[in-house]
């Protein structure tokens, strides 16, 4: 089922280092994190430089890995988890002792306290190495980190396969025309190790020859849509158009969107979806215009202990993200400019919650569920908790 | 009913030139357009420099007036109308002949073909002067322009009085707390001659001692909220907070908005509201959260011949407005930066339509109407056309 270039694209010297991969940068498959040719240091795509520069940074110690997460050179819960795992491996390579392991865990754990996958990855790698003799710990940590990365890729590919079915279905209803997909923020390969979540169905459809066109929300304040999603799609050759976050409702009113697909930062067991702020507004417009609204959610992003949406804490981020915009001047300099008056306050809630009733379906690695406790529990019976814990809706 | 400083604030040398006015800049009442001390040239606030610089430009001929409209140094339909009227006066002062009048009309009419008030103002001044001897034309044109400006101010003040009633009512339900008002784009005094439309109730409430706090949508792509509305409110001392366009839904979900008040570019006779793109999304969120959604609409912005909303043409503006952002660098330079990758397309629909069923009420200079043909016709019986012309909803 995989496109041919995914199964075998090792013709170039560095392909073995980049591993087989799906999404391309300037024609070359790339992962967002991979082992360097030296076999031990770690390469990451520096996402703070995008879309203006494509920089691949090299991490040689755990401090650099922690900094990369903290400074958002890597972001997106799955990628943060993989980076933290490699960070532990770097720490154990330098010093495999218990104290070194403990220090590295504390350091990495403090980088982004809200990312679910961060603690999970640290726990997993630690559990895999702590009982081993010191001489075996580093190599086992590298194996665990690689497994975490590979599992993420496979989970996203499966989400892609399930989503591809939806897109094929929409395509069959408008032969000759592109399926018009709207997405918000970046749930792309840059937020994961490869494929992305919301973008996985899009990349698979494009690679399978199904004509798609993506409306990319700019996603203020950090502009992850315009900076990252648009860049990813452009590099891979997927037709797309950037619009401001205000435009989606108009596009839906005028029949220019066939389906919305977004990612999620946390989904409750009842199918309520916390995602980048503004997602809720698009879901409202989708319902008002009878357009299906899907959420691509690996099971790792489902919070099985939570059902009511009002309990989801919403991170308030620095106002400077709203007040200041980074871009490239006409002279090619990267510059940050302030866009609000000095006398004005700024607020910056980073997420909102789309209630389950606005969600047509949740695309997981095991298939598509309606946004309900029952449907999600059917797909993941081993994870669902008894109904008694349900909170207020 | 007017605040004291509005009735008499002529203590400063230039106050007579600025006329009595309502909204203050750095403590001084200002209109967005006014006659210079010389008694003939025209002063405008250069809105392209805001919020970074407060520049008052001087227009000395009709070409400068036309350029000011074209380059959006002045914008907002009512202000465009007043500027065009003064432009004709400047033309007639230089040459009161028929050919001069005709040339000036053509020039001004070509500046912003979609602004309703532009043609109306040109027609009105022309009709008032064309039958006069040449020696009287210029002074009559100045009188007509001043009347157009004064009438705009009075209409907006009336809208403000009606809206103030709404705000007082909300305030009475939460004694001690500020009334939380969300607005989109700039329907402020900068879009009119004074008071603004959506902001008129806010300024009157603030001046009357009713505690208000305004959530100001940034309003991408041109950032009129962050650049103009926030600046206006800051100068006048009204508490406010700038948020990205994505945040309004979240604020409403969390009970942080009591009422939405927006302006309109064109409202149909049935109460459908075309306004800055993104307005529709906020109206959907307001309905979903049972928050009243009001539109401040002077009768001049109601298109009595149009009822169905799908007929309203939506202007597609240059993609550069999305791709490029203007602001101030940390070194104080005004700089424009590009925020999208070079390989990406951009679309920029400038308006959307909020269907009447999402609108709680339309605040006009004659009172508040529900968003329906019947209610609007009751307020403006002389303007409403027979029901037979109603289009598709």
Task: Fill in the keyword field for this structure.
393 residues; alpha/beta; Rossmann fold; 2 domains; seven-stranded mixed sheet; 13 helices; globular; disordered C terminus
Largest interface: A-B, 68 and 68 residues
**Relative strand content of chain A:** 15-25%
Give the strand line-up of the largest sheet of chain A. Answer: 8-7-6-9-12-18-19
Question: Could you name the CATH homologous superfamily of the largest domain in chain A?
Answer: Translation initiation factor eif-2b, domain 2
The level of helicity of chain A is 25-40%
Number-wise, the strands of chain A total 19
Distance between the termini of chain A: 39 Å
Number of contiguous helices of chain A: 13
Return the CATH topology of the largest domain in chain A: Rossmann fold
Average pLDDT reading of chain A: 91
**Assembly annotation:** homodimer
Low-pLDDT sequence parts of chain A: 1-20, 388-393
Major β-sheet annotation of chain A: 7 strands, mixed
CATH architecture descriptor text of the largest domain in chain A: 3-Layer(aba) Sandwich
Just give the CATH class of the largest domain in chain A: Alpha Beta
- Radius of gyration of chain A, taken over Cα atoms and rounded to an integer in Å: 21 Å
The number of domains of chain A is: 2
- Which structural class matches the secondary elements of chain A? alpha/beta
Principal-axis shape of chain A: globular
């Amino acid at each position: 089922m995989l496109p041919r270039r995914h199964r075998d694209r090792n013709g170039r010297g560095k392909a073995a280092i980049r591993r087989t991969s799906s999404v391309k940068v300037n024609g070359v498959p790339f992962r967002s994190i991979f082992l360097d040719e030296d076999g031990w240091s770690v390469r990451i795509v520096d996402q703070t430089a995008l879309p203006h520069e494509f920089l691949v940074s090299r991490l040689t110690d755990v401090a650099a890995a922690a900094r990369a997460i903290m400074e958002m050179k890597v972001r997106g819960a799955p990628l943060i988890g993989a980076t933290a795992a490699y960070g532990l491996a770097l720490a154990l390579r330098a010093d495999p002792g218990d104290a070194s392991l403990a220090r590295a865990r504390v350091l990495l754990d403090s980088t982004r306290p809200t990312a679910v996958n961060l603690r999970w990855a640290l726990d997993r790698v630690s559990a895999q190495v702590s009982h081993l003799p010191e001489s075996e710990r580093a190599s086992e940590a590298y194996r665990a980190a690689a497994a975490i990365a590979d599992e993420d890729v496979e989970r996203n590919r499966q989400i892609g396969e399930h989503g591809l079915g939806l897109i094929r279905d929409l395509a069959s209803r408008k032969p000759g025309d592109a399926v018009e997909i709207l997405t918000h923020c970046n749930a792309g390969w840059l937020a994961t190790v490869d494929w992305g979540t919301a973008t996985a169905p899009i990349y698979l459809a494009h690679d399978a020859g199904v004509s798609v066109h993506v409306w990319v929300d700019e996603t203020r304040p950090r502009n992850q849509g315009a900076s990252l999603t648009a860049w990813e799609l452009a590099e891979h050759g997927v037709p797309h158009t950037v619009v401001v976050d205000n435009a989606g409702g108009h596009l839906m009113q005028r029949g220019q969107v066939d389906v919305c697909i977004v990612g999620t930062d946390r989904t409750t067991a009842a199918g309520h979806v916390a995602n980048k702020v503004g997602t809720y507004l698009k879901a409202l417009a989708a319902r008002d215009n009878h357009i299906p609204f899907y959420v691509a959610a690996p099971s790792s992003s489902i919070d099985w202990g939570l059902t009511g949406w009002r309990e989801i804490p919403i991170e308030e981020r620095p106002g400077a993200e709203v007040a200041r915009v980074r871009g490239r001047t006409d002279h090619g300099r990267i510059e940050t400019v302030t866009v609000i008056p000095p006398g004005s306050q700024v607020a910056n809630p980073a997420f909102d919650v789309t209630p389950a009733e606005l969600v047509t379906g949740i695309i997981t690695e095991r298939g598509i569920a309606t946004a309900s406790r029952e449907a999600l529990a059917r797909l993941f019976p081993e994870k669902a908790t008894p109904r008694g814990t349900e909170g207020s809706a």
